[in-house]
Structures are given as structure tokens and as C-alpha cells.
Design goal:
The chain is of the alpha/beta class. The protein has one domain (5-157): P-loop containing nucleotide triphosphate hydrolases (Rossmann fold, 3-Layer(aba) Sandwich), CATH 3.40.50.300. The chain is 51% helix and 14% strand. It has eight helices and five strands. The chain has a five-stranded parallel β-sheet with strand order 2-3-1-4-5. The termini are close together. The structure holds shikimate-3-phosphate (S3P). This is Shikimate kinase. Its cofactor is Mg(2+). GO terms for molecular function: shikimate kinase activity.
């Protein structure tokens, strides 16, 4: 095990929380979802934070939460899909953890998130939004130490693959 934490990054709907929870129990490590921390800290849901305080405010809190959680050890940390947009966040993730990018193709993501009402960036025409944001973030996740495709295969298999490589 090279580093003290495992950080899962990736586009919305790539399975960061689902894989993260299973991986953490396999390792006997803690599990942290940065979006959950943000909601607890702000006493507001993610959509409420976006609508009342705006995305810039959300990104500020997200960066603070990432800094806080990365300071501890032996945790699997699932980050929000946009956390990697900040160079500061990316450097912190790489210095304090093994960064794993989960990826999936656009159609798989659309299927997973199409009923979603909890993601402010995907309101309206979800399909168009997914393609548009994916295009903008094309290279944003490539800094990761390990890249895994979650489009096919079971969660257990993905967890095994990660376990074998860390
Ligand atoms: C976001 C992804 C969301 C959440 C927020 C913004 C993004 O997390 O942080 O809605 O910018 O991609 P998930 O990746 O867990 O959906």
C-alpha cells in the first residue's frame, strides 16, 4: 500500500460511492463521501447549496472538505465529479492518496443518472448535459494513478481489481 488514503475521482454516475463503500469494507478502512460531508456541514442538500449559494460557493466548501478529509489516514474517499477541476484539489489528492479514476461511457452514465434529481448540473436535458460536461472535462480525470472502466462488470469485480493494484 503506497499511500494512506484512496481517492476515487470520476464523472457523475461512474460508481464512486458504490465502489468506495465496498472497497472500504474490504480494506477495513473508513469511507467518506465528500458530498455527504458538504451537506452535513452546510445543513443543506447539494441542490439547495447550488440554488441558494451558487456553484462558486459549493466549490469553495468542497475544497475545504477535501483538505479536511485528506488530513486523516486509512480512508476511501469518494469525491464529487467536479472536485478535480481545481488544481489545488488535484495536488492534494495525489500527495495524500492513491487516486483512482472510475470511468464509464456516456450512454452508461446517461442510463445511470437519467432519473436523478439530486445533481444540479444535470437538470434539464440530461443527455445533452452529460455530453456537454463530459466534453468539457475530457482530460480532467487523467491525472489519476489508476484508471478503471466501470461500464461493464460487477462492483465486486471492480473492487477486486482495485485491491490487486494498490
Ligand atoms: C458534481 C458532481 C456531484 C456533486 C455536484 C457537482 C460535478 O457529485 O458534487 O452535484 O460537478 O460533477 P457526484 O459525482 O457524486 O454525482
Amino acid at each position: 500500500m503506497k499511500k494512506n488514503n484512496i481517492v476515487l475521482v470520476g464523472f457523475m454516475g461512474t460508481g464512486k460511492s458504490t465502489v468506495g463503500k465496498k472497497l472500504s469494507s474490504k480494506l477495513g478502512w473508513g469511507f467518506v463521501d465528500t458530498d455527504d460531508w458538504i451537506e452535513k456541514r452546510e445543513h443543506l442538500s447539494i441542490p439547495e447549496i447550488f440554488s441558494t449559494k451558487g456553484e462558486v460557493y459549493f466549490r469553495k466548501v468542497e475544497a475545504e472538505v477535501i483538505q479536511e478529509v485528506m488530513a486523516s489516514e486509512h480512508q476511501v474517499i469518494a469525491t464529487g465529479g467536479g472536485a478535480v477541476l481545481s488544481l489545488h484539489n488535484r495536488s492534494r489528492m495525489l500527495s495524500q492518496g492513491t487516486v483512482i479514476q472510475l470511468k464509464a461511457d456516456a450512454d452508461t452514465i446517461i442510463k445511470r443518472v437519467e432519473k436523478d434529481t439530486h445533481r444540479p448540473l444535470l437538470q434539464g436535458n440530461i443527455k445533452d448535459k452529460v455530453y456537454e460536461i463530459m466534453e468539457k472535462r475530457k482530460y480532467a480525470y487523467e491525472f489519476a494513478d489508476i484508471i478503471l472502466d466501470t461500464s461493464a462488470g460487477s462492483v465486486d469485480h471492480l473492487v477486486e481489481q482495485i485491491y490487486a493494484r494498490i
